[in-house]
Amino acid sequence: MFGRATMNLAVGGMQIVGYAAGGLLLAVFEPWQLFVIAGAASLAAVPIVRFGVADHAPRAVDTAPVRRSTRGNRELLGSAVIRTVLLSLCVPNGLIVGCEALFVPFAGRYAGYLYAVTAAGMLLGDVVVGRFVPEGIRERLVQPLRVLLALPYLAFLAHPSPAVAAALGFVASIGYAASLPLQERLVTRTDPAMRGQVLGLFGTGLSGMQGVGAVLAGGLAGLLGGGATAAATTMGVLAVMSLIVTAALTPGLARSRPPARLGAQEI
Q1: Would residue 58 count as lying in a domain?
Q2: 22: in domain
Q3: Shortest CA distance to 85 belongs to which of 210, 204, 181, 208?
Q4: What is each CA distance from 4 to 14, 184, 250, in whole angstroms?
Q5: Is 265 inside any structural domain?
Q6: 128: domain CATH number?
Q7: pLDDT tens column, 206-231
Q8: Are 17 and 124 in contact (CB under 8 A)?
Q9: pLDDT for 124-153, tens place per residue?
Q10: Tally of structural domains, the chain
Q11: pLDDT for 37-61, tens place per residue?
């Protein structure tokens, strides 16, 4: 478990560094220039992956990998325990990512600073919760952190200044750390033979819901007329939605709470 937590923290840390760097660069470059830079970086990574990553023999040979993957996904999603943890990891977070997607129309030239401080909040929460908070306390912090992720964005209904918005975003992003103990539950409650698949399902679901959150945010802000006022109002609405989803999933999430000793597995 310590190794998995270290891996998750390392991956999450690199993502957060990327978010922070992107936010700071947004204060210097135009968005289209950043897309060009990102595309060039992706192209530069191709030869590194092609020639720097060695091939490994597959653990299992299957003539029908799609059927096996589909069957495994049905089994995982058919579990009330696993399904609730996955939804808790993906849906509230995706809605808050929708809030962050509106930083540019809300703050204009100050948006880069908002992205940077929210990335700093994510980093602080992951480091403190993942490395310094004991396991038992981490479990008790799941619900407060899930609420913290959305609660500060309710203040955007009052259309705060960019400076106040930055402070609110920093505090809210600490709540992303709830994903660490939830990922631990996801792994420990899954059969070892399917842990790789459930983590892949989690990654796909999280990315998908982040996209849904951004599209929902943009559509709602457009319906409200666009501009900074509409963006702020939309962020407040998405925060309410995230809190409602969090409250609705709380009873089911209690079933995934680990016993005194981790290790119970359930599919």
Answers
A1: no
A2: yes
A3: 181
A4: 15, 8, 25
A5: no
A6: 1.20.1250
A7: 999 999 999 999 999 999 998 999 99
A8: no
A9: 999 999 999 998 899 999 999 999 999 999
A10: 1
A11: 888 888 888 888 778 777 766 665 5
